[in-house]
Design a protein that fits this description.
This protein is an alpha+beta fold. The protein contains 6 helices and 11 strands. It starts with a helix and ends with a strand.
């Protein structure tokens, strides 16, 4: 993206953020912006394509481009002592979780290359979190089979790992580290979360321990759509 395209992008985003355009009215046409900025039409189209990939706008064939209605962002306190399900149920009209995978992790899996992973045998429970019918987060729990062997026998309750732990008598949790990254999602994550190509994904890596026994339960990876949450630390 060159300087002229950046100028158009910054102008349009500022106008969208300031509420200049209603959701019911089309954005300026290619020709209006060509005349306003004195640029070739292709540059305007490049900018509009980028804004669509970022989730700011959408196109209606033969009518024009419109801004996307702003979604109410969900508050996400990044702590491991309260389950994701409880946080979402307190805010959303509808919340549910779908188990995508529940399986023993093969030893060639990339998780074993992480510097903080010392366990030899892990069981992956991958859940897709839906908030008001829209996928909002992907949650991967790599559970230590050495400490929680029951996980292989309890697939029916795995949509809520905290509930599963509480059935085992574990009530208090803590983590010893957290690692945050902002990612452009790969095809798998983008497909599962149904996110736009250039909408950033926040990845949170951490661990989870039974506070009463100081026994490690799992390693955790959570992928959040950044257009669905506002984060608190």
């Amino acid at each position: 993206m060159d300087a002229q395209e950046l100028a158009i992008k910054d102008y349009l985003i500022a106008q969208i953020d300031n509420g200049t355009y209603a959701t019911t009215e089309p954005l300026p046409s290619d020709y209006q912006l060509v005349e306003q900025f004195g640029v070739p039409r292709m540059k305007v189209r490049n900018v509009y394509a980028l804004l669509e990939q970022l989730g700011y706008i959408y196109a209606r064939k033969g009518i024009g481009r419109f801004i996307c209605a702003k979604k109410q962002l969900l508050d996400m306190v990044l702590s491991g002592d309260v389950s994701f399900s409880e946080k979402m149920k307190a805010q959303a009209k509808q919340y549910y979780s779908v188990v995508k995978r529940a399986e023993v992790v093969r030893h060639e899996h990339a998780i074993f290359q992480k510097s903080y992973v010392t366990a030899q045998n892990l069981y992956l429970v991958e859940r897709l979190r839906f908030v008001d019918e829209v996928p909002a987060a992907l949650h991967r729990s790599y559970i230590l089979l050495e400490h929680v062997p029951e996980v292989q026998e309890r697939e029916r309750v795995l949509s809520s790992i905290h509930s599963f732990y509480r059935e085992l008598g574990i009530e208090q949790f803590h983590s010893t580290f957290s690692k945050l990254d902002i990612l452009v999602p790969d095809e798998e994550i983008r497909h599962l979360l149904q996110s736009q190509l250039l909408v950033p994904i926040m990845k949170l890596e951490s661990d989870n321990w039974d506070s009463a026994t100081n026994r490690q339960l799992e390693y955790t990876e959570i992928f959040y759509r950044t257009d669905r949450f506002q984060f608190q630390f």
